[in-house]
Each structure stands twice: as structure tokens, then as C-alpha cells.
């Protein structure tokens, strides 16, 4: 059992949770993820690490409430427990002194961007962060992003700010202006990571994405998480989740993520009907 | 000589639609009658055929006297997981093949009797305080790890198992289906191992959550029983379409995650209508029979050699046929087609040519025999390879060219204080051979911790 020591609603349907998990907190590195199983009947739900504190023995996640498992998790309160928490899983993000880097993030991806930016800074990089959202209310942790990065750009899809648009548009613009960029990191939904990769492709700037295929065990045992990168099949849970966005077969990724939508939909509707009071 | 007592089973019509155990087990009368056939040999061949050396004539004698408790006690002197072995050991190749009666008549049904004793004998718990003060870490809670842990605990050591998943048991829990090995049986036998004082840490992925180097610092010895869990694929076009599973994924969803009870359990699975299972081993049979039970209209086993070369146990092939699995032999898939989800599988017919290195006749393609099979689900059951996760994290650990860990006959690896055994050392094998390896390693760990000596001369 792993206790929830903090819960906070950050934006519409986006929740931050902090768990007591000393073993994981001591081993975590940027780019890794956890697998949460809420209860006896629960599925294994992968979530990226959005922070950790080895002293306190806690780990943080930020998740978007989407279907059964995320709703179940969202219905828990501070002090409640989840049944299982395994991690840290996946290969840590490769970090070194690249020079000038961009971190693009949005939605739940703002979570894992935080520890990433921290360690990129520790390695001596100049970090420009671009955070996207449909409107201001979808942006959270803006202060933290600002204080960690050398420069923060907030781009809003509804145009209600000085830099309207989305992260991919920002990156096209930024690169066309001739700014030096040695590497780009992207955390967000598959669509956002795809369009950001497309934006940087013509400029040949290596773009690292953190893929979110369906997973079951997260230890390389089942192959559910297979993705195609550079024409080769890789297991995202042990070979990734970080891959070169210019080499990812995005169509295959999104198709495979839709494999079980019918079942997921049924499961969610039943859960909502049984738990309308929560 | 009276005939071997038959095992009562659910009828094929009934069982092909439920996940309850197929073989129902001996009644007391059945067990007494079968036990009566045993000659109680002075030099029993059967014992030599058992990789853990269960004292077979002695336990059968106890059953004959109607004492299942005593029978179980005798079995557990050698085997901590009898309810499991009695069900899934390939007895026809092991203990039973060496029974004297096998020569002229039918051998004693040793496995069925072992199962009877395990199911009806009262558990004899022997919790002990750690007396020797040595601490041992076991990585993986499959049959190899559980056996090694149980034996070391019985010798008085302080043992902790680290398991990556949220449930102990390894393949017993995530792979072998409920209808062959009920999970309640696995749970009971895992609980028995716990009752000996063994601690089991779940959600502990060694190589990630804790490193092998950390374990070496904290423990006197390490046993790696991490199995050969990484699935192999065919590497043909279209294999990454939706609806194409490795047998590991398919069976894990069903057994570990209980997708057969979806939506009561949250993990979903594609309930295929027309399912193709590629492979000819026990795993393929398990996947095919599971697909039927999920409600598939048609389930095909697609295998590139003929039935004679199938590695699956005869009994499992028979069971699958009785339940209505269709066998497409001498057939090989060459591509999958579909748009998002798989819709069809391109195949070619094969014929058998000259024997290959394994002594089996090599299948070769028949020219112009291509055909298409409409399917909506495919399960690839062509074997597994060692999962490199742990091995990568231990610099200097010697592996073989098959990726398995290199061990000597005692289970010692190339690194002092690290032993290994089971599928990680042999490649996919059997439950009982993994247990045998766990047992040999436990014995060697105990003596090495006592006497030391040169590691691997
Ligand atoms: C390595 C990794 C890191 C992730 N990090 C985060 C994160 O930090 N925050 C966050 O909000 N989400 C993250 N996700 C996605 C998250 O796992 C899914 O949103 C979640 O599983 C949805 O589950 P559900 O039952 O609530 O919804 P469902 O209704 O079951 O599913 C909705 C959609 O989510 C995807 N999904 C479903 N099950 C899984 C699964 N087992 N594994 C992966 N995707 C699945 C599918 O595309 C599905 O159509 C991550 C995924 C991976 C693989
Ligand atoms: C579907 C199927 C059916 C089978 N049927 C039979 C049968 O009828 N009869 C028979 O005799 N054999 C059968 N087998 C084979 C048999 O199950 C295996 O040979 C046996 O389980 C091997 O035991 P093991 O202890 O070596 O490994 P496993 O049973 O594979 O256990 C390894 C354990 O280690 C854990 N692990 C792996 N990596 C890590 C890590 N990094 N950290 C922590 N833990 C880790 C795994 O999660 C797993 O629990 C079958 C196999 C399958 C897949
Ligand atoms: S453990 Fe297996 S091989 Fe040994 S006696 Fe029992 S059934 Fe036979
Ligand atoms: S060899 Fe056969 S008859 Fe003899 S003791 Fe063993 S089981 Fe009994
Ligand atoms: S999630 Fe099973 S292999 Fe990656
Ligand atoms: Mg779900």
C-alpha cells in the first residue's frame, strides 16, 4: 500500500498527486515513469514521474482524467492508499551538456518537464521552455517553469496572450528566426509530440519525445508497448519511453493506442454509473 | 494389474466456455485405488525421474494407508509446491516415464496422486526463526525463486524475494491459465512459502527499483530466478497492427489482470471472433484454449511443421482438439493485413524437408501455395528469450550466446555471491526443472556461506 500524501487539482481534469514510496524516490531519474494499480480490480496504469524527494521518500505524478483508471485514482483523497506502485521504469532521459535546448510541454506533460528542466540546467544547458495550452486555465506550475528555465514562453491556442498558437508553431518560428537549438525535448500527448517533431524536422534538430503506448507490465515481458522507430520494433517500457521523434511511426503509435477504445468506453460508463456519488 | 484410474474432467462442451479447472481431481476412492497399484519398489525408477527427488513410494504408501496429511508431509520434504507440480509437471517425460510399470502397462499416475495429497492433506507449517544469521535476496518469485527461498528458509536463513509484478508466482500466476492451474492453488503454495518466514517484496523491479549492486551490499548471497520472459515475434510485415498480441500479453491480461472478468475487472482485452494462434507449444495451446473461453467463434492453431513435431504435451493437444480448436498444420504466416486493426493473415503451406540441427525435419515453403486467412485477433506464441533488464545492470555477468546466464552445475554465475537458475539459465523449460535449479542453488548457497572456498575454479 502506498499512501497519497498530497492531492491538488491543477487545471480542468488535471490532477497532481504525491505518494509515499521511498524506494522509488531514491532511484528516480528524469524521463522515467511509474505503474500504479489503484485496487484489487485495477489495471496497471503508467504515469510519468513529475518529481521526487529522496529525503521525504515521496514521488509526484500529474495526470489527465480520461477513463476508468484515472477516474478511480482521481476519486481518492489525501491519506488514502493505492494498492501498488512500481518504478521507476523505463530508461532515464539522456542528459548531458548539449548547449541550447528547448523543452516543449503541455497538458500532463508539464509534470515530467519539471525534473527534466532541472537536470538539463544542472548539466549546464541553456533551457528555453515553451508551454502550451488551449487557454490560460490549462497552464499550471508557470512560476516553477519560469524560475527553472532561462526563458519561458507561454503559448495559448485561443490566442489570449502575447504569443498565440501552439508549441509546434512556436518552434517553427523560433528555428526559422535562426536561433541556435541543439536539442528539443517534448512532453505531452502523442499528437502534440508528433506535430512538434514535424516542426523541427526541416531544421534537423534532434527532437526527443516520451512515448505513451499501451502498457501492461512495464518490464519488457509482454510487448504491448511496441513502437516502430526507424523501421525497427522497440519496447517503449524498456528501450524507451524516450525516442527520436523524427524516426517514430506516429500512425502506428496512435492506431495501437486505439486498440481497445470500445472496451475502455464501456468500462468507463459502467464505472461512472456505479460511482456517480464520488 | 488393474488399469490406471482415469482423471475426471469437465466435458469439452461445458469447459470450452468457462475458466474453471478442466481436470477435477481424484476422489478419495480414486486415490486409494490408484495408490494400490504402486509396487513400492525398493529401487524406484520414478524417483530418479523427478528433478527434485520426491520420495514417491513413501508418499504413495501413506496415501494407501489413507493418510493424506502424512503423504503431503513426505512430499514437502522435497517439493514445496506439490499442488502446482501435480497439475503441470510433464509427468509422462519425468517421474512416470521411469516407473517400472511403464514398461509393460500404464505407469502409476504419480502427478494425480501428488495433486490429491496437496489438495486434501493438511498443511504442515514450519515457521522458523532465522538461526544462521545469513541474509539472502532472491530475485523473481517464479518456481525457481520460490523453491530456492523455501529451502533456504527451512535451513534457517533470512530470505527476501524481490518480485517486479504485483503478484508472486511468475509464469504460474501470469502465464498458465486458471483452467489448468487455479490461481487459488498458486496463492496457497506461495502462502506456504511465506509461512516458512520468507518475505516477499512485490512491485520491486530489480535493476530499476533496487540495483543488484545494492543487493550485494545488503545481502550475503543473491539468487536470480527471473525467467525468460521477453516475447519473440515473427518479424513479418503488419505484425504491429492492433489485435496482434504476444502470448505473454494475451495470457497476462487474462490471468494476472483477470481480463476474462472484464468489465468487473478494469483491464480490457479484444474478445476476438476469429483468432489465429501461431506456434505449436504448450503456450500456444493455452492461448488458443483461452481465446475459446473468451467467446471466439473460431480458433486456429497455425504451426509450420506437422503434428508429430509439435512441442506441446500430447494431453494438451488432445484437450484443445476436444474443445474445438482447429489445427492448421504445415502452415506459416508471412504477413498481416489490416487498417489499424488486423483483418487478415497471409500464409503459405509448408512441406517437411531434411532434418535440421534439432533433428526435426525442416519445413520448406511450397511454391504458389499462398492463401489468406481472415482473422481479427492473432496471438504469437513462438517462444521467449531472457529479459535483459537485470542482466544489463550487472557489469561482468557472463551470458551465453542465447542470452541466458552462464551458470555451473551448482548454479554459480561468473560473479561471486550471485547464483542463478530456472528459465534464465536454461531458456524456457519446465516448472519442475526450474524448481530443481532453485533447490540445487539453495543447497550450494548454504554450504558456500558456511565453508566459503574458491568461487568457480
Ligand atoms: C510511459 C507512459 C507515461 C505516461 N505518463 C502520463 C502522465 O504523466 N500523465 C497522464 O495523464 N497520462 C500519462 N500516460 C497516459 C496514461 O497512462 C493513460 O492516459 C491512462 O492509462 C488512461 O487510462 P484510463 O483507464 O483512465 O483511460 P482509458 O479510457 O482506459 O484509456 C484512454 C486512452 O488512454 C490510453 N491508455 C489506456 N490504457 C493505457 C495503458 N495501460 N497504458 C498506456 N495508455 C493507455 C489509450 O490510448 C486509451 O484510448 C502515460 C503513458 C505511458 C505509457
Ligand atoms: C503459458 C505457459 C504455460 C506453461 N505451461 C507449463 C506446464 O504445463 N508445465 C511446465 O512444467 N511448465 C510450463 N511452462 C514453463 C514454466 O512455467 C517455466 O519454465 C517456469 O515458470 C520457469 O520458472 P522460473 O522461476 O525460472 O521463471 P518465471 O516463472 O518466469 O518467473 C520469473 C519471475 O521473475 C520476475 N522478474 C523478472 N524480472 C525481474 C526483475 N527485474 N525484478 C524482479 N523480478 C523480476 C518475473 O516477474 C517473474 O515473476 C509454461 C510456460 C508458459 C509461459
Ligand atoms: S514433482 Fe513432478 S516430476 Fe516430481 S514426482 Fe511430482 S509430478 Fe513427478
Ligand atoms: S516405480 Fe512406479 S511402481 Fe515403483 S515405486 Fe515408483 S511409482 Fe511405484
Ligand atoms: S509494457 Fe509489457 S513489454 Fe512493455
Ligand atoms: Mg483504462
UniProtKB/TrEMBL annotation, chain B:
InterPro entries: 4Fe4S_Fe-S-bd, DPD_II, FAD/NAD-bd_sf, FAD/NAD-binding_dom, Helical_ferredxn, SudA-like. Gene3D superfamilies: Alpha-helical ferredoxin, FAD/NAD(P)-binding domain. Its EC number is 1.8.1.-. The keyword Transferase does not apply. Keywords: Oxidoreductase. Transmembrane segments: none annotated. It is an enzyme of class 1 (oxidoreductase). GO terms for molecular function: iron-sulfur cluster binding; oxidoreductase activity. This is Sulfide dehydrogenase (Flavoprotein) subunit SudA. The lineage of its organism: Archaea, Methanobacteriati, Methanobacteriota, Stenosarchaea group, Methanomicrobia.
Amino acid at each position: 500500500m502506498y499512501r497519497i500524501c498530497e492531492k491538488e487539482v491543477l487545471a480542468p481534469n488535471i490532477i497532481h498527486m504525491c505518494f509515499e514510496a521511498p524506494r522509488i524516490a531514491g532511484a528516480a531519474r528524469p524521463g522515467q515513469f511509474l505503474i500504479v494499480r489503484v485496487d484489487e480490480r485495477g489495471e496497471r496504469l503508467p504515469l510519468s514521474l513529475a518529481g521526487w524527494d529522496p529525503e521525504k521518500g515521496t514521488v509526484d505524478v500529474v495526470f489527465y482524467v480520461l477513463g476508468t483508471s484515472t477516474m478511480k485514482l482521481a476519486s481518492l483523497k489525501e491519506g488514502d492508499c493505492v494498492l501498488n506502485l512500481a518504478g521507476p521504469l523505463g530508461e532515464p532521459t539522456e542528459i548531458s551538456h548539449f548547449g541550447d535546448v528547448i523543452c516543449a510541454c503541455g497538458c500532463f506533460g508539464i509534470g515530467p518537464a519539471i525534473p527534466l528542466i532541472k537536470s538539463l540546467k544542472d548539466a549546464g544547458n541553456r533551457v528555453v521552455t515553451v508551454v502550451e495550452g488551449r487557454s490560460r486555465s490549462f497552464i499550471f506550475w508557470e512560476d516553477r517553469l519560469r524560475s527553472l528555465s532561462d526563458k519561458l514562453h507561454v503559448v495559448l491556442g485561443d490566442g489570449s496572450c502575447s504569443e498565440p498558437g501552439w508549441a509546434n508553431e512556436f518552434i517553427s518560428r523560433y528555428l526559422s528566426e535562426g536561433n541556435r537549438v541543439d536539442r528539443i525535448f517534448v512532453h505531452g500527448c502523442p499528437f502534440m509530440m508528433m506535430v512538434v517533431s514535424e516542426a523541427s524536422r526541416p531544421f534537423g534538430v534532434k527532437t526527443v519525445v516520451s512515448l505513451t503506448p499501451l502498457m501492461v507490465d512495464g518490464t519488457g515481458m509482454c510487448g504491448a508497448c511496441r513502437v516502430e522507430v526507424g523501421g525497427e520494433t522497440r519496447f517503449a517500457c524498456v528501450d524507451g519511453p524516450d525516442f527520436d521523434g523524427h524516426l517514430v511511426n506516429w500512425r502506428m503509435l496512435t492506431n495501437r493506442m486505439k486498440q481497445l477504445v470500445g472496451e475502455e468506453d464501456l468500462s468507463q460508463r459502467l464505472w461512472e454509473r456505479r460511482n456517480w456519488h464520488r | 494389474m488393474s488399469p490406471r484410474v482415469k482423471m475426471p474432467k469437465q466435458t469439452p462442451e461445458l469447459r470450452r466456455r468457462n475458466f474453471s479447472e478442466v481436470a477435477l481431481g481424484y476422489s478419495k476412492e480414486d486415490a486409494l485405488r490408484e495408490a494400490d497399484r504402486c509396487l513400492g519398489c525398493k529401487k524406484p525408477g520414478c524417483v530418479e525421474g523427478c528433478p527434485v527427488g520426491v520420495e514417491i513410494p513413501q508418499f504413495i504408501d501413506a496415501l494407501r494407508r489413507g493418510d493424506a496429511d502424512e503423504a503431503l508431509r513426505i512430499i514437502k520434504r522435497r517439493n514445496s509446491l506439490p499442488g502446482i507440480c501435480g497439475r503441470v509437471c510433464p509427468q509422462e517425460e519425468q517421474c512416470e516415464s521411469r516407473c517400472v510399470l511403464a514398461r509393460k502397462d500404464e505407469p502409476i499416475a504419480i502427478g494425480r496422486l501428488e495433486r490429491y495429497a496437496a489438495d486434501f492433506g493438511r498443511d504442515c507449517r514450519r515457521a522458523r526463526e532465522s538461526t544462521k544469521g545469513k541474509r539472502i535476496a532472491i530475485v523473481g518469485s517464479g518456481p525457481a525463486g520460490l523453491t530456492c527461498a523455501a529451502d533456504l528458509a527451512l535451513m534457517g536463513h533470512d530470505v527476501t524475494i524481490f518480485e517486479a509484478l504485483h503478484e508472486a508466482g511468475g509464469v504460474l500466476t501470469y502465464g498458465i491459465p486458471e483452467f489448468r492451474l487455479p490461481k487459488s492453488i498458486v496463492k496457497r503454495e506461495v502462502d506456504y512459502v511465506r509461512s516458512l518466514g520468507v518475505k516477499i517484496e512485490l512491485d520491486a523491479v530489480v535493476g530499476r527499483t533496487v540495483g543488484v549492486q545494492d543487493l550485494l551490499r545488503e545481502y550475503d548471497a543473491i539468487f536470480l530466478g527471473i525467467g525468460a520472459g521477453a516475447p519473440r515475434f515473427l518479424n513479418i510485415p503488419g505484425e504491429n497492427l492492433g489485435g496482434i498480441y504476444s502470448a505473454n500479453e494475451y495470457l497476462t491480461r487474462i490471468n494476472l489482470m483477470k481480463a476474462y472478468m472484464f468489465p468487473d475487472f478494469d483491464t480490457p482485452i479484444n474478445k476476438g471472433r476469429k483468432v489465429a494462434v501461431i506456434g505449436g507449444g504448450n503456450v500456444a495451446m493455452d492461448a488458443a484454449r483461452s481465446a475459446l473461453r473468451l467467446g471466439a467463434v473460431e480458433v486456429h492453431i497455425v504451426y509450420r511443421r506437422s503434428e508429430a513435431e509439435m512441442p506441446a504435451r500430447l494431453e494438451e493437444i488432445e484437450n484443445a482438439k476436444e474443445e474445438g480448436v482447429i489445427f492448421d498444420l504445415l502452415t506459416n504466416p508471412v504477413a498481416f493485413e489490416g487498417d489499424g486493426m488486423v483483418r487478415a493473415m497471409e500464409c503459405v503451406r509448408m512441406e517437411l524437408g531434411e532434418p535440421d540441427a534439432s533433428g526435426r525435419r525442416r519445413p520448406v515453403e511450397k511454391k504458389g501455395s499462398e492463401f489468406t486467412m481472415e482473422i481479427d485477433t492473432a496471438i504469437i506464441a513462438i517462444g521467449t528469450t531472457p529479459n535483459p533488464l537485470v542482466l544489463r545492470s550487472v557489469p561482468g555477468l557472463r551470458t551465453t550466446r542465447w542470452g541466458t546466464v552462464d551458470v555451473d552445475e551448482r548454479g554459480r554465475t561468473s560473479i561471486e555471491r550471485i547464483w542463478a537458475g530456472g528459465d534464465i539459465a536454461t531458456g524456457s523449460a519446465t516448472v519442475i526443472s526450474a524448481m530443481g535449479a532453485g533447490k540445487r542453488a539453495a543447497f550450494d548457497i548454504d554450504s558456500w556461506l558456511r565453508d566459503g572456498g574458491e568461487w568457480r575454479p
